[in-house]
C-alpha cells in the first residue's frame, strides 16, 4: 500500500484525506483536543502514523541528505538552499501547522520524529529546519491572528520563504529579558533599532520573529514580539552584519542582524503590545522540546557509525565488538539514546494529548506544557549526545579522529545543544526552581 507520507503523496489534499481517514479509524468516539497549542480539532497521531512518518523522513534523507551532502554542508559552511523547497514539498515545514494553511496538523511528537531523523542525517540542516519550522512557523501558528497566519504561513510552509526567530543579543543571552533592541511607535507602526546575535537562518530569512523593548523601563513587561518581513515592507534599514563562523552546525547559517529604523506595520505585531515575554517564554518551552530531538538524531548517527565499525574491524584476531570493554561503551551509547528518547517522546505525547475533551463533557482540560519537563528533555538529550559522540570517536580509534569520518562532526554539532535554546545551566535553573516551588 502506498504510504500517505511518501513525498509524492504530500499534496495538501492527500494529506487531509490521510488524516481524515485516521480520525475515522479511531471508532465511534474520536478524541478531539482543544489545547491552544494545536490547530482546532487536532487529533494526536497514532503510533503507526508516527512510524509511517519516520519511514518517510528516512526515505527523504536517504535521497536528499546522503553523507556526501552532510559532509559538504559542514565543510563549505553553506546551507544547501534548494533544501528548503524539498523540505516544503515533502510536507515537513508545517508539521504543527493547520491543514488549511498547508500544514499537516500532526503535533509535537511528529515534529520530534522529523527533527530526529533529519538530525541523524545532518545536524546542521536539521538545526536550520527547526529554526524555520518550530521557532518561526510554530510561533506564528500559536500566536498569529488569522490574517497574519494566512499572509505569512503558506510561503513558509511551502519552503518558498525562510523563517527565523531573533531574541538573543550580544549582551543578552541567558538573561534575554535584558535585551536592548527598542521599538518606538510611529505613524502606522513601529521603528525597530538595535542588533541581534547568533540568529539561525538570519542570513537567509525573509520572515523573522523579533523581540524588542516597547517600554524599556518595564523589564519583562515591556517586550513585544514582531513579525519582521525583511524581504518586503521592513526591508529598509535591515542588514546582516556578518555570517558567523562556528565550531559545529556548520552550514546552518547563523548571523548577526542589524536594525536601523526598520519599519514594522501595526498589523505585524505578534500577540499583544508589551506582552511579548509570554510569547517568548511559551515558545521557548516548545522550542526546547522539539530541539531535544536534534541530539536524539545525533546519538542515532553515532550508533550508526560505531556499530558496523566495531563489528567489522578486527584487532587481536577478533572483531572489536567482541571485547567487553567495547560492548560496555556500545551499551552506554544505546542506553543514553533510549533513555533520552523515552523522555522526549513522553513529554511530546503529554503535550499532544493535553486539552482533551472528555467523552462525557464538553469541558476541556488545561494544556500540559511544563517548562521544567521541556527543559529536562533537552538537558538530558544534549549532554547525552555529547558523551555519545565522544564514545563514538573513541570506538573508532584513529579513524574516529579523522575528518573524513563524520564522528568529529557529530561531536561538534552535539555541543551546540548544550548552549542554544538556553544553556544546560539555565535548564537546571528552570527545573530546580520549579521543584523548589511550594
Ligand atoms: C549556533 C547557535 C545558534 C543560535 N540560534 C539562535 C536563534 O536562532 N535565535 C536566538 O535568539 N538565539 C540563538 N542563539 C543564542 C543562544 O540562545 C544563546 O547563545 C544562549 O542562550 C546563551 O547565551 P550567551 O551565549 O549569551 O551565553 P551567556 O548567557 O553569556 O552564558 C555564558 C555561560 O554562563 C552561564 N550562565 C549564565 N547565566 C548563569 C546563571 N544565572 N547561573 C549559572 N550560569 C550562568 C551559561 O550557562 C554559560 O555557561 C544561538 C546560539 C548559537 C551558538
TrEMBL record:
<dbReference type="InterPro" id="IPR013786">
    <property type="entry name" value="AcylCoA_DH/ox_N"/>
</dbReference>
<dbReference type="Pfam" id="PF02771">
    <property type="entry name" value="Acyl-CoA_dh_N"/>
</dbReference>
<dbReference type="GO" id="GO:0006552">
    <property type="term" value="P:L-leucine catabolic process"/>
</dbReference>
<dbReference type="GO" id="GO:0008470">
    <property type="term" value="F:3-methylbutanoyl-CoA dehydrogenase activity"/>
</dbReference>
<dbReference type="InterPro" id="IPR006089">
    <property type="entry name" value="Acyl-CoA_DH_CS"/>
</dbReference>
<dbReference type="InterPro" id="IPR006091">
    <property type="entry name" value="Acyl-CoA_Oxase/DH_mid-dom"/>
</dbReference>
<comment type="similarity">
    <text>Belongs to the acyl-CoA dehydrogenase family.</text>
</comment>
<feature type="domain" description="Acyl-CoA dehydrogenase/oxidase C-terminal">
    <location>
        <begin position="274"/>
        <end position="435"/>
    </location>
</feature>
<dbReference type="GO" id="GO:0050660">
    <property type="term" value="F:flavin adenine dinucleotide binding"/>
</dbReference>
<dbReference type="InterPro" id="IPR046373">
    <property type="entry name" value="Acyl-CoA_Oxase/DH_mid-dom_sf"/>
</dbReference>
<dbReference type="Pfam" id="PF00441">
    <property type="entry name" value="Acyl-CoA_dh_1"/>
</dbReference>
<keyword id="KW-0285">Flavoprotein</keyword>
<keyword id="KW-0560">Oxidoreductase</keyword>
<dbReference type="InterPro" id="IPR009100">
    <property type="entry name" value="AcylCoA_DH/oxidase_NM_dom_sf"/>
</dbReference>
<protein>
    <submittedName>
        <fullName>Isovaleryl-CoA dehydrogenase</fullName>
    </submittedName>
</protein>
<dbReference type="InterPro" id="IPR037069">
    <property type="entry name" value="AcylCoA_DH/ox_N_sf"/>
</dbReference>
<dbReference type="InterPro" id="IPR009075">
    <property type="entry name" value="AcylCo_DH/oxidase_C"/>
</dbReference>
<dbReference type="InterPro" id="IPR036250">
    <property type="entry name" value="AcylCo_DH-like_C"/>
</dbReference>
<dbReference type="Pfam" id="PF02770">
    <property type="entry name" value="Acyl-CoA_dh_M"/>
</dbReference>
<feature type="domain" description="Acyl-CoA oxidase/dehydrogenase middle">
    <location>
        <begin position="164"/>
        <end position="262"/>
    </location>
</feature>
<keyword id="KW-0274">FAD</keyword>
<feature type="domain" description="Acyl-CoA dehydrogenase/oxidase N-terminal">
    <location>
        <begin position="48"/>
        <end position="160"/>
    </location>
</feature>
Amino acid at each position: 500500500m502506498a504510504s500517505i507520507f511518501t513525498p509524492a503523496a504530500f499534496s495538501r489534499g492527500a494529506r487531509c484525506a490521510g488524516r481524515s481517514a485516521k480520525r475515522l479509524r479511531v471508532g465511534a468516539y474520536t478524541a478531539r483536543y482543544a489545547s491552544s497549542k494545536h490547530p482546532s480539532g487536532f487529533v494526536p497521531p497514532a503510533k503507526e502514523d508516527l512510524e509511517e512518518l519516520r519511514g518517510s523522513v528516512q526515505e527523504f534523507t536517504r535521497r536528499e541528505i546522503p553523507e556526501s551532502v552532510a559532509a559538504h554542508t559542514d565543510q563549505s559552511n553553506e546551507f544547501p538552499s534548494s533544501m528548503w523547497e524539498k523540505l516544503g514539498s515533502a510536507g515537513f515545514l508545517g508539521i504543527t501547522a493547520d491543514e488549511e494553511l498547508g500544514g499537516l496538523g500532526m503535533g509535537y511528537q511528529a515534529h520530534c520524529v522529523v527533527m530526529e531523523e533529519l538530525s541523524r542525517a545532518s545536524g546542521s540542516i536539521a538545526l536550520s529546519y527547526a529554526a524555520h519550522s518550530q521557532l518561526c512557523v510554530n510561533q506564528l501558528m500559536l500566536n498569529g491572528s488569522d490574517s497574519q497566519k494566512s499572509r505569512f504561513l503558506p510561503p513558509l510552509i511551502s519552503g518558498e520563504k525562510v523563517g527565523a526567530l531573533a531574541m538573543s543579543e550580544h549582551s543578552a543571552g541567558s538573561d534575554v529579558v535584558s535585551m536592548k533592541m527598542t521599538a518606538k511607535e510611529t505613524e502606522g507602526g513601529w521603528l525597530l533599532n538595535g542588533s541581534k546575535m547568533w540568529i539561525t537562518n538570519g542570513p537567509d530569512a525573509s520572515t523573522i520573529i523579533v523581540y524588542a523593548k516597547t517600554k524599556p523601563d518595564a523589564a519583562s513587561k515591556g517586550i513585544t514580539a514582531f513579525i519582521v518581513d525583511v524581504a518586503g515592507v521592513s526591508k529598509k534599514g535591515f542588514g546582516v552584519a556578518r555570517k558567523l563562523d562556528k565550531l559545529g552546525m556548520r552550514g546552518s547559517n547563523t548571523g548577526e542582524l542589524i536594525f536601523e529604523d526598520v519599519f514594522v506595520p501595526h498589523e505585524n505585531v505578534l500577540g499583544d503590545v508589551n506582552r511579548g515575554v509570554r510569547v517568548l517564554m511559551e515558545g521557548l518551552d516548545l522550542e526546547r522540546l522539539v530541539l531535544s530531538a536534534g541530539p536524539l538524531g545525533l546519538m542515532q548517527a553515532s550508533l550508526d557509525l560505531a556499530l558496523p565499525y566495531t563489528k567489522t574491524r578486527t584487532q587481536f584476531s577478533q572483531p572489536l565488538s567482541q571485547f567487553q570493554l567495547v560492548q560496555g561503551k556500545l551499551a552506554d551509547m544505546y542506553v543514553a539514546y533510549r533513555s533520552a528518547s523515552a523522555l522526549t517522546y513522553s513529554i511530546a505525547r503529554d503535550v499532544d494529548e493535553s486539552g482533551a475533551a472528555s467523552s462525557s463533557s464538553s469541558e476541556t482540560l488545561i494544556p500540559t506544557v511544563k517548562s521544567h519537563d521541556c527543559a529536562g528533555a533537552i538537558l538530558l538529550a544534549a549532554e547525552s549526545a555529547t558523551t555519545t559522540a565522544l564514545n563514538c570517536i573513541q570506538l573508532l580509534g584513529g579513524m574516529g579522529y579523522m575528518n573524513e569520518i563524520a564522528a568529529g562532526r557529530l561531536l561538534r554539532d552535539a555541543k551546540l545543544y548544550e548552549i542554544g535554546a538556553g544553556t544546560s545551566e539555565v535548564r537546571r535553573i528552570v527545573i530546580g526552581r520549579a521543584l523548589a516551588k511550594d
